[in-house]
Automatic annotation (TrEMBL), chain A:
The lineage of its organism: Archaea, Methanobacteriati, Methanobacteriota, Stenosarchaea group, Halobacteria. The chain crosses the membrane at residues 15-36, 42-64, 71-91, 103-122, 181-202, 235-253, 259-277, 284-306, 312-331. Keywords: Cell membrane, Membrane, Transmembrane, Transmembrane helix. It comes from Halorubrum rubrum. Pfam families: BPD_transp_2. This is Branched-chain amino acid ABC transporter permease. It is found in: Cell membrane.
TrEMBL record, chain B:
The keyword Transmembrane applies. GO terms for cellular component: plasma membrane. It comes from the Archaea. This is Branched-chain amino acid ABC transporter permease. Its main location: membrane. Keywords: Amino-acid transport, Cell inner membrane, Cell membrane, Membrane, Transmembrane, Transmembrane helix, Transport. It is found in: Cell membrane. The lineage of its organism: Archaea, Methanobacteriati, Methanobacteriota, Stenosarchaea group, Halobacteria.
Length: 347, 304
């Protein structure tokens, strides 16, 4: 085998290289005195961009569950929230409310991922056999239950205030605000790209073919000797763990967690992004999510030029988002870049 | 407050949830979709009732009828516009469309009506019973004095009237029998010459009328705002699934179980955690789906 054969070729490998490069450059900004300056007009882009790369991990996990395996998980935000809360509670120091244990943050992040994966395992062990639409309802109800637990157990989860004082590793290293934003988006974006590489590897492998076979026809897949329940559970847990990772990174970036960050709106945003881009295509779901999150920028800029209140604009944006969801399902059920034949929908 | 009082609140809550849950479960059984936008039908019905009662103004019973008619019209228009064209695509696209429609309507109402809550003014008579002795267990009082307002009686009376009317409709009229036939087996119903689209349309109208009624009753009990219906949709859904999706009689029982569970858990929870009572409803829902997914009276929803 020559050295040339070892060079990366597939789409997944390109994402891996890009991800490692992003991490490296982000690390340079964080660890060396290197500084970046950002025109103030671009702040809002970078801030939405950071949210986008965090949600990117959510949509990749959801796409593994719904796009590839056909699991209708409508409570994806709960795994995001559990990852974030577990990380925050373990890592936070001197929080105003709730539990703050003050362990090192890498350990907290690991526990966050494991906690989300465990919840995913519990949900799938109990509900994965339910019919599509009922699985959607159970996951949705799970998310609502956890939301009200976070709000109501003030002594543990800090109620509506949430948990403050979560360490911010990048902010601790970089004092300058511009450099901090750039380093943050590069590091988290790099992790998202590496995630993209990993899920691409997984779904390009024979394993991914089994998942897509389950979505296309579960009975046939079972009849060729694949234990579909095991595969579905694994896909569900992988998606949940990814959401937990996203949640942990969010807590460490944001420095605080509160129930307001983890509403059903998050689930809806990533679902619409996934359907708009085209389920079962990793890059398409990220592009779809980018379009939906781009709407936030539009409404922020629109807000500054029109004389209406922010509340009106937020409501208007959500009307548009709802109509986009309806239009996509009606007129382009496979999404913009999806493959209608593979998804089994007629145009 | 005694447990008896909480139970009365539970029955009142259960009554309007029951009316809405019947409409929800009829759509589920006959159109074969979980309509997540159904809460918005309630909100729209409540607003129609509110404007009839305060802007025109008409007496309350007329306003209720206007809300019911309005609900029916809104429901059939939305169904024709959004759900009928994609009826063949299966439950998941229909569910997702209803979620999108719900977001759009909820925020459109917020856009035009603002966030503030409105109140329908009614004359209320309160009947008090204080002669019941207290039976305390810990901090919870098992009996205790209680009161019933005329609003409570209106809600409960409307619910009973709806139950009787629905029972008569489903067992005594051609359209009701056709609905049950379609809920059972749509292909067989079509073979027997039932116009399935017509029946589907009549289910949409019926569900809209029930949503309008439930919405305006909620408005009388509490208030009207853009989230009036949405804040109840998960309870309606829980009631419908608890009763066995597709079964109107099951939905009634499910609604009272949910209503009582909500009210009684409020009594037992410490005052800082009363918000958890909604989680109790969902916990019941999940437990039902795990133990007996077909509900009290319904069909199998598990695949494997």
């Amino acid at each position: 085998m020559s050295a040339l054969d070892r060079l990366p070729s597939g789409r997944g490998d390109r994402a891996l290289i890009a991800g490692v490069a992003c991490l490296f450059v982000g690390g340079l900004f964080a660890l060396t005195p290197l500084q970046a300056s950002l025109p103030s007009a671009l702040y809002v882009f970078v801030e939405v961009g950071i949210t986008f790369v965090i949600y990117g991990m959510l949509v990749l996990g959801l796409d593994l569950q719904y796009g590839h395996t056909g699991l209708v998980n409508f409570g994806h935000v709960v795994f995001f929230a559990v990852g974030a809360y577990a990380t925050a509670m373990l890592a936070a120091q001197d929080s105003f409310s709730g539990i703050a244990l003050g362990y090192p943050w890498p350990l907290a992040l690991l526990v966050g991922v494991i906690a989300a994966a465990l919840l995913g395992l519990v949900v799938s062990a109990t509900s994965i056999r339910l019919r599509d639409d009922f699985l959607a309802i159970v996951t949705l109800a799970t998310a609502e239950i956890f939301h009200s637990i976070f709000v109501n157990f003030e002594g543990v989860f800090g109620g509506n205030v949430g948990i403050l004082g979560v360490p911010r590793p990048i902010a601790a290293l970089v004092g300058d605000a511009d450099t901090r934003l750039i380093a943050t988006i590069l590091v988290i974006g790099g992790i998202t790209l590496i995630t993209l590489a990993a899920v691409t590897r997984l779904t390009d492998a024979p394993y991914g073919r089994v998942l897509r076979a389950i979505r296309a026809d579960e009975l046939v897949t079972r009849s060729v000797g694949k234990s579909t329940i095991v595969y579905k559970t694994q896909a569900f847990v992988y998606g949940a763990a990814l959401a937990g990772l996203a949640g942990g990174l969010f807590a460490l970036y944001n420095g605080a967690v509160a129930p307001g960050f983890f509403t059903i709106q998050v689930t809806v945003t990533i679902w619409i992004g996934m359907l708009l881009g085209g389920a079962a295509n990793h890059r398409a779901v990220l592009a779809g999510l980018a379009i939906i999150m781009g709407l936030r920028l539009v409404s922020r800029f629109g807000l500054s030029v029109t004389p209406v209140s922010g509340d009106v604009f937020a409501a208007f944006r959500l009307v548009v988002v709802g109509l986009i969801l309806i239009a996509v399902i009606r007129f382009r059920p496979a999404g913009i870049w999806g493959d209608p034949q593979e998804l089994g929908v007629d145009q | 407050m005694g447990l008896l009082q909480e139970a009365i609140f539970g029955i009142v809550t259960g009554s309007y949830i029951a009316i809405a849950a019947i409409g929800f479960t009829l759509i589920y059984g006959i159109v074969n979709m979980i309509n997540f936008a159904y809460g918005e039908y309630l909100t729209l019905g409540a607003f129609v009732g509110f404007f009839a009662a305060s802007a025109i103004p008409v007496p309350l019973p007329v306003a209720i009828v206007v809300a019911m008619v309005g609900g029916g019209v809104i429901s059939i228009v939305l169904a024709r516009g959004f759900f009928t064209p994609i009826n063949h695509t299966g439950p998941v696209p229909l569910l997702l469309t209803s979620i999108g429609l719900g977001i759009a309507i909820r925020n459109a109402i917020r856009l035009f009506g603002g966030r503030s809550a409105r109140y329908i003014e009614t004359e209320t008579t309160t009947f008090r019973v204080d002669a019941v002795p207290d039976v305390s267990i810990g901090s919870v009082d098992l009996l205790g004095g209680f009161f019933v307002t005329s609003e409570h009686l209106i809600v409960f009376g409307s619910a009973v009237a709806v139950f009787l009317a629905i029972h008569a409709l489903l067992t005594r009229t051609d359209v009701g029998i056709a609905m049950r036939a379609m809920g059972d087996d749509e292909s067989l119903a079509r073979v027997r010459g039932i116009d399935t689209q017509l029946i589907r349309d009549s289910v949409w109208v019926l569900a809209g009328v029930l949503a309008g009624l439930a919405g305006v009753l909620m408005a009388i009990q509490t208030n009207v705002s853009s989230t009036t219906g949405f804040s109840h949709i998960l309870q309606i859904l829980s009631a419908a699934i608890l009763g066995g999706a597709g079964s109107p009689y099951g939905a009634i029982i499910g609604a009272y179980v949910i209503g009582l569970a909500l009210a009684i858990s409020t009594a037992f929870l410490p005052s800082s955690m009363t918000g958890l009572s909604s989680a109790v409803a969902f916990a019941i829902l999940i437990a039902v789906l795990l133990v007996k997914p077909s509900g009290i009276a319904g069909t199998e929803v598990r695949e494997a």
